[in-house]
Specification:
The protein is an all-alpha fold. It has 2 domains: about 5-185 and about 250-450, MFS general substrate transporter like domains (Growth Hormone, Chain: A, Up-down Bundle), CATH 1.20.1250.20; about 200-250. It is about 80% helix and about 0% strand. The protein is built from 17 helices and no strands. The protein has helices spanning about 5-40, 45-70, 75-95, 100-125, 130-160, 165-170, 170-185, 200-220, 220-245, 255, 260-290, 295-300, 305-320, 325-340, 350-375, 385-415, 425-450.
Length: about 475
């Protein structure tokens, strides 16, 4: 860890800018989906793969790249990730077919995994515990700034220039991050240098997640159920393998012996599983059911992340002063309330009601994210910052994957592989309502996971979590 102010500022700027880049892309693409679906004549399930492919790739590669960052240097992996992410955005813009677009999105997800698995670890390494919550709050606020500008700017670009402009807009931001890393960020962090990389565990983990999420898209076919079962068996085998490995990809002792780490990660998994699919569903709802343009729908959807920016900054600061899990639990409770209000979403629901639900959601997720991140990162030894960062990122991205898997399952059960058209709007609404019921149930359980993880001890200074640092 360095106390050099210039390095701390460089790490904060680089981590925050990259934190902006990936959610900006994701929320922009959600707004562009109807336009993409129209050009390639996609059914609802295939359309969801444009979002799911990137999330799936990020989820399966996040832990391996986080571990590689610990061994060979987080800055190296981070820089490579920005290159891959930015180059893939260009390939998406040039896509001439659905397979090419989905493959490019998958590659973009790989680049995102390199960024996710190292960015938070770099930030945590650069800042001492007394300042970490505030720095993480800035980084999380940058995520929500990306989520805010994504729908509005993505809607503007799609409406005036077409959906390909959404991908092209990422190029200057990506190049700017690369230049900042080369020019300002001089340090390198590799606390696990010289340790062995677990190739078998990595392959087992990746194949299990692929089988599980693809199985969701094939339900209710028997193949879908079989693939999900294979995925679950693979996850169990991965956990057993990692528990016995001398150089594990994922440090399972952190879950067994560190209560704060375990339950805060579980809470993160639940939170993201319950919330990620909301933006996808509401983007389609506002444009198909309510007849809004991409630009208008984007302006509605910014209500949630705009509020989250300010709340994340405040909750990050508060998490340095009090138990972060209590703030996270309150955030989960508000998230549950917002999801309950969305269950009755229908043809006659007013835009004002949608805005109210999004604002409650923004308040809830904003209260949850920064304190939850601070709780996880402050509960481990610096040697495990990369592992903790990638584990937390894996909870986020696996939650995103499961959230989209839930949406795909709802589409498969209620709509099948049909285009979203007026004659199918009732089926689309029933699919959305089923997904919101599942999300609300998950979020309710997350309240208890957040609070249970908070029964540790604060530091003597009352800042962060002492716990048992592994």
């Amino acid at each position: 860890m360095t106390e050099d102010p210039s390095q701390k500022m460089a790490a904060l700027v680089v981590a925050s800018t990259s934190s902006f880049l990936t959610p900006f892309m994701g929320s922009s693409v959600n707004i562009a989906l109807p336009a993409i679906g129209e050009e390639f004549a996609l059914d609802a399930v295939t359309l969801s793969w444009i979002t799911t492919s990137a999330v799936l790739a990020a989820a399966i590669f996040l832990v391996p790249f986080g571990r590689l960052g610990d061994i060979y240097g987080r800055k190296k992996v981070f820089t490579c990730g920005v290159f891959v992410y930015t180059g893939s955005a260009l390939l998406c813009a040039l896509a001439v077919s659905t397979p090419m677009l989905i493959a490019s999105r998958f590659t973009q997800g790989m680049g995102g995994a390199m960024i996710f698995g190292t960015g938070t670890a770099i930030l945590t390494s650069a800042f001492p515990a007394r300042e970490r919550g505030k720095a993480l709050g800035v980084s999380v606020a940058a995520v929500y700034l990306g989520l805010t500008l994504g729908p509005s700017l993505g809607g503007f670009l799609t409406y005036h220039f077409g959906w390909r402009a959404v991908f092209l807009s990422n190029l200057p931001v990506g190049l700017m991050v690369i230049l900042m890393v080369a020019w300002r960020l001089k340090g390198e962090w590799a606390e696990a240098q010289g340790e062995r990389f677990d190739l078998f565990g990595s392959a087992l983990y990746c194949l299990a997640l692929v089988a599980m999420i693809y199985g969701f898209s094939r339900l209710p076919e028997s193949l879908g159920g079989g693939l999900i079962l294979v995925g679950l068996v693979g996850i169990i085998a991965f956990v057993l393998w990692e528990s016995r490995s001398d150089s594990p990809l994922l440090e399972m002792s952190l879950f067994r012996k560190n209560r704060t780490f375990a339950f805060s990660n579980i809470a993160a998994l639940i939170n993201y599983s319950a919330t990620f699919g909301i933006g996808f569903l509401l983007s389609l709802y506002l444009q198909y059911i309510k007849g809004l343009s991409a630009q208008e729908a984007g302006l509605v959807l910014i209500a949630q992340p705009l509020l989250m920016i300010f709340v994340a900054l405040l909750s990050g600061w508060l998490s340095d002063k009090m138990r972060p899990q209590l703030l996270a639990g309150l955030g989960m409770a508000l998230t549950t309330i917002s999801l309950l209000t969305l269950i009755d979403l229908g043809m006659e629901t007013s835009i004002r009601s949608v805005l109210a639900s999004l604002m409650i959601l923004g308040l809830g997720v904003g209260l949850f994210s920064s304190p939850n991140t601070n709780a996880v990162m402050s509960s481990v030894h610096p040697k495990f910052y990369g592992v903790a960062s990638s584990t937390l990122g894996t909870m986020r991205l696996t939650g995103h994957m499961l959230s989209m898997g839930t949406v795909m399952l709802a589409f498969s059960l209620y709509m099948g592989r049909v285009v979203i058209a007026p004659e199918n709007y009732d089926l689309f609404l029933r699919s959305g309502q089923a997904a919101f019921v599942a999300f609300a149930a998950l979020s309710f359980g997350g309240i208890f996971a957040s609070i249970i993880g908070g029964k540790g001890h604060k530091t003597n200074e009352g800042k962060g979590i002492r716990g048992r640092q592994f």
